[in-house]
Amino acid sequence: MAVAAENIDTSRWVVIYPSYIDRQKSQQEGRKISKEQAVERPMVQDIMLACKKLGLDHAHEFKGYPRDWMARFYDGGRVRVCLKDKDGKLTQESVPNRVSLLRQVAAQIPEDLSQRVSKPQNAAPKQAESGTGASGAGGKKGGKGVKAKSK
Q1: Lowest mean pLDDT segment, chosen from 9-13, 15-19, 115-119
Q2: What is the C-alpha separation between 49 and 115, in angstroms, rounded?
């Protein structure tokens, strides 16, 4: 049940960035659950679909995760999820807190990347192999080390 973020105050809702449940991220990079429970390269659309399957109100926001600035360019932001109503009562008894929410959302996302709503793409374009310059000298100019032979 996606709601328009402009119509409702979502400031008290729980935030889920894809990095929170990404198996490839370290805890220092923002992963909040164990690697065994996390999924590989989750996207915002996958998180929104998982929230819909769990019957939770959610809203999409175009905000980047501060610890992963590259995600701002290839991922669609974050998802806010309503765990409690205005009276403080849980909206879903099966999801009592933030960690439980992250685990259940990750469990709803398919492991097989081909079965997902959105197909993850590589974050950065592949760079050329290092050490293969046109001169054959590894692309280095002068300095200490092996000098290129001249004929």
Answers
A1: 115-119
A2: 12
CA angle at residue 123 from 120 to 125, to 5 degrees? 115
Tell whether the model's pLDDT for residue 61 goes beyond 80: yes
The amino acid at residue 57 is: D
Question: Using only C-alpha atoms, what is the Rg of the chain?
Answer: 22
Q: What is the SS3 string spanning the chain?
A: CECCCCCCCCCCCEEECHHHHECCCCCCCCCCCCCCCCECCCCHHHHHHHHHHHCCCEEEECCCCCCCCCHHHHCCCEEEECCECCCCCECCCCCCCHHHHHHHHHHHCCCCHHHCCCCCCCCCCCCCCCCCCCCCCCCCCCCCCCCCCCC
Pair 123, 116: CB distance under 8 Å:
no
Q: Is the pLDDT of residue 20 over 70?
A: yes
Kindly list the distances between the CA atom of residue 139 and the CA atoms of 59, 129, 131, 149, in Å, as whole numbers in the listed order. 49, 11, 6, 14
C-alpha distances out from residue 23 to 42, 53, 75, 151, Å: 9, 21, 16, 52
